[in-house]
Amino acid sequence: MVQPLVGGWGAGHDKDGESGQFCVGNGETSNIPVELTERCYEVFVEHYGFHHEDGGAGRHCGGRGVVLDYRILSPKAWVSTFFGRGITPPWGIDAGLEGSCNYAEIIRADAPTERFSRANRVALEEGDLLRLVTANGGGWGPAKARSLEAIQDDIKNEYISIEQARRYYPDQMPLA
């Protein structure tokens, strides 16, 4: 299975970044439906949605990346990943905060979690969880300039938690 992943794009001077978008460099790409993935490959998709990792706060926020969890159902499988921005997150602009990094994790029942951004043919076994996480884009402008209405929308849409809102926007959010 080969699947390009969607991620968060950086904010603009006048708007938040796009969330869960493909790179135009991927060409004619589509988001493979979970049901089709499960039918054609020996995996179970346990979770696919926007993640809640830090990154990208600003007057205009960077778009949200995603987390995609595959439970391996076959006796043997391998993963190769070629994520860019695995060490250095996307930068923020004009005092916006940097985004987050892309990475993969293998969560095994009887071994420590392995985390990497680039790897070739890492062995997976039945029951392992392969987690793919794409980056949040960088923010634009200082976080203290984000409107309370936009922050409340971010919380309502579950882009950020109340705790993250208090951390990113202490001037706009009450502490109680």
Number of strands: 7
Structural class: alpha+beta
What is the count of DSSP helices, taking H or I runs of 4+ residues? 3
Domains (count): 1
Radius of gyration: 17 Å
List low-pLDDT spans.
none
Averaged pLDDT? 93
Q: What is the end-to-end distance?
A: 47 Å
Q: Into which percent range does the helicity of residues fall?
A: 10-25%
Strand residues, percent: 15-25%
- Order of H and E elements: HEEEEEEEHH
Describe this structure in words.
The chain is an alpha+beta fold. The protein has one domain. It is 13% helix and 24% strand. It has helices at 34-40, 148-156, 162-168; strands spanning 43-50, 66-72, 76-82, 103-107, 114-116, 118-125, 129-133. The strands form two sheets. A five-stranded antiparallel sheet has the order 1-2-7-4-5, covered by helices on one side. Strand 4 and strand 5 form a beta hairpin. The longest helix is centred in the C-terminal third of the chain and has 9 residues, at 148-156. The radius of gyration is 17 Å and the shape is elongated. The mean pLDDT is 93.
